[in-house]
Design brief:
This protein is α+β, with helices and mostly antiparallel strands. The protein has twelve helices and 25 strands. The strands form seven sheets. A six-stranded mixed beta sheet has the order 16-25-24-23-19-22, with helices on one face. Helix 10 packs across helix 11 and helix 10 crosses helix 12.
Length: 538
């Protein structure tokens, strides 16, 4: 995604916005995605009207404020006035309160004393991305940047993606160091200037008015247990008088508090207007730490876990999103499962013949290539299984883009074989080989794994006979493929039986979209194509 279209504004100027509210629908190059707010605020000004096409990534689309009395100050603010002042507030970010007499002040206040520059903010590199990790900076401060140069590598919820420079200039300031995790969307990453002589002006530049994204400090050592009683009296007064009413907290601090089980009402905020920041959560000491002074000698026993009994592995952004989406799928989609055995004898025979024919072209067809082709053709026969649940409508897709589950060191990812229903086996084989290699190297581009209308997960090569897969929303079906094995089948011959290679498959269906009889019909078509593969030519 390089540009987007504001399909519809869900909120009007002056409306109150709660955390998680949908404020707009943005049409990307793959789908229409809901744009949610991360904090409570009020919509002060819409700068990009509905229907505006080709809005560049990082463009300011609206202004939000914390209190309704600040809305009037932005009545006459326009994109032109913001651009003319050289300020670049992050999209949908809360603007700093301006002086009432001068509505244009919030646009000119940040950075007006600095030379002309451009702030590069963290963009949405996938529809589900809410934060990212700066894996590595490819450029250093002071280096010249050309259009198309790789500036940094960003780990998103799906993959590690190269972030390219859109304009020429010089890198004047890096505001988010390498290794910083959980950087919210829209956070300024760096500053680029046009002239090399302007670099020095940003040496001590500090960004204000954004969520703190400092590099996480190393966890405190568990050994100094005796220090806890001495430090306990300091936070005790704050814990004794819990907050009442609204608690101001940054999204990252709120997330950390939830993970650590900390009650925000007991935390004293050190940010502006008492806002709780990440450091407040990390430095918080529960009030219950005080009674630990008496049994201090016994404390080291449970604290000192035997060496080598476990290893804490940091959770990557990809693993977090996999966990969230799998939980969402199992909790919100009514799954049911249909299984069938498929005779693979004719497929294996045809595969051997075709591989002999294309051996000189360095092509080797796999059984999975036949499964992808048969699945795509079955989706054309039973289009209900090639549909998506969109909350208000069921979207029946007219093309079959097959997502193929690939296991990588960072987690599962599903690159897409586009238009699988019209591709030949050799083309499908080539596509899968290239996509799988890029997936394992972390080099997939967003358009290569976002979308898809039907998913296949094949564990047959690991000796798995059968399993049930979890649906990849908003798709309505996923096919779980087990391995082939020789079985005895009753036959009308002298022996009374035949030996055949049988493969077990299980189709997971979303009952909101696909009824049981429809799912059974899809499996019947799928089995027909594989047991008589010549019919895939029709």
């Amino acid at each position: 995604m390089q540009t987007g279209t504001i399909a519809r504004w869900e909120k009007k100027e002056g409306d109150k916005i709660s955390e998680g509210d949908l404020i707009a629908e943005v049409e990307t190059d793959k789908a229409t995605v809901g744009f949610e707010m991360l904090e409570e605020c009020y919509l002060a000004k819409i700068l990009v009207p509905e229907g505006t096409r080709d809005v560049s990534i990082g463009s300011v689309i609206c202004i939000t404020v914390e209190t309704p009395d600040l809305i009037a100050a932005f009545k006459d603010v326009t994109l032109d006035s913001i651009n003319a002042s050289g300020a670049a507030p992050s999209p949908a970010a809360s603007a700093p309160p301006p002086p009432p007499p001068a509505p244009a002040a919030p646009a000119t206040a940040p950075g007006s004393s600095y030379p002309p520059h451009m702030k590069i903010s963290l963009p949405a590199l996938s529809p589900t991305m809410t934060m990212g990790t700066v894996q590595r900076w490819e450029k250093k401060v002071g280096e010249k940047l050309s259009e198309g140069d790789l500036l940094a590598e960003i780990e998103t919820d799906k993959a590690t993606i190269g972030f390219e420079v859109q304009e020429e200039g010089y890198l004047a300031k890096i505001m988010v160091p390498e290794g910083t995790r959980d950087v919210p969307l829209g956070t300024p990453l760096c500053i680029i200037v046009e002239k090399e002589s302007d670099i020095a002006a940003f040496k001590d530049y500090v960004e204000t008015g954004v969520v703190e994204v400092a590099t996480p400090p190393p966890p405190p050592a568990p050994t100094p247990q005796a220090a806890a009683p001495a430090a306990a009296p300091t936070p005790a007064p704050a814990a004794a008088a819990p907050r009442k009413g609204r608690v101001f907290v940054s999204p990252l601090a709120k997330k950390l508090a939830t993970e650590k089980g900390i009650d925000l009402a007991e935390v004293s905020g050190t940010g502006p207007e008492g806002r709780i920041t990440r450091k407040d959560i990390e430095n918080f000491v529960p009030s219950k730490a005080a009674p630990a002074a008496a049994p201090a000698p016994a404390a080291p026993s449970p604290a000192a876990a035997p060496a080598g009994t476990f290893t804490d592995i940091p959770i990557s952004n990809i693993r977090k999103i996999i966990a969230q989406r799998l939980m969402q799928s199992k909790q919100t989609i009514p799954h049911y499962y249909l299984s069938v055995d498929v005779n693979m004898d004719q497929v294996l025979e045809l595969r051997k013949e075709l591989n002999d024919e294309v051996k000189a072209q360095n092509i080797k067809l796999s059984v999975n290539d036949f499964i992808i082709k048969a699945s795509a053709l079955a989706c054309l026969k039973v289009p209900e299984c090639n549909s998506s649940w969109m909350d208000t409508v069921i979207r029946q897709n007219h093309v079959v883009d097959v997502s193929v589950a690939v296991s990588t060191a960072n987690g599962l990812i599903t690159p897409i074989v586009f238009n699988a229903h019209i591709k030949g086996l050799a083309t499908i084989s080539s596509d899968v080989s290239v996509l799988a290699a890029k997936a394992r190297e972390g080099k997939l581009q967003p358009h290569e794994f976002q979308g898809g209308t039907f998913t296949i997960s094949n564990l047959g090569m690991f000796g798995i006979k059968n399993f049930s897969a979890i649906i990849n929303p908003p798709q309505s079906c996923i096919l779980a493929v087990g391995g082939s094995e020789k079985r005895l089948l009753p036959a009308d011959n002298e022996k009374g039986f035949d030996v055949a290679s049988m493969m077990s498959v299980t189709l997971s269906c979303d009952h909101r979209v696909v009824d049981g009889a429809v799912g059974a019909q899809w499996l019947a078509e799928f089995r027909k194509f594989l047991e008589r593969p010549i019919t895939m030519l029709l």
